[in-house]
Amino acid sequence: MTDLKPLPIIPLPAAAEDVPELARIQVDAWATDLTNSLYSPTAGEFSNAISRAVSEHIPSPEWIVTKAVDSRTGKIVGFTSLQLHGYEKPGSLHSESSLKCNGKREQGDIKGDSAIEVAFNSKYSI
Q: Among 101, 93, 100, 102, which Cα is nearest to 123's?
């Protein structure tokens, strides 16, 4: 049996200065996707669309944008951009560690408080 070592990837809140690298990662990841080419025929158009969207998501309290950083090199190696549906979160996006359900549920039966608290607590306690 081999010893498993933790991955050197650290999730961190994304910032405005990360947008060009996040757009490059997205363009590279979807470069061979034929469906994507219907929406954005060129890599430049796709990069611009991703840059605009992520730039709007980062400061928004309705979105959580997290970058994955290689702790050995400091290089961004991936990211997520998650929209919160049915939840309110007052204040700064990255300053609190829990959200409260506002009672709106579109599908599923997961309790809002526990699901979101688990996500935030695990993301920012590393």
A: 93
pLDDT tens for 55-90 read 999 999 889 999 999 999 999 999 999 988 765 555
d(CA 103, CA 111): 10
pTM of the entire predicted model: 0.63
Tokens 């290689």, residue? 70
How far is the CA of 34 from the CAs of 17, 25, 31, 52, in angstroms? 29, 17, 8, 22
* Sign of the C-alpha dihedral computed for residues 111, 119, 64 and 94 taken in this order: positive
Measured from the Cβ of residue 112, the count of other Cβ atoms closer than 10 Å reads 19
Helix (H/G/I), strand (E/B), else coil: 115: helix
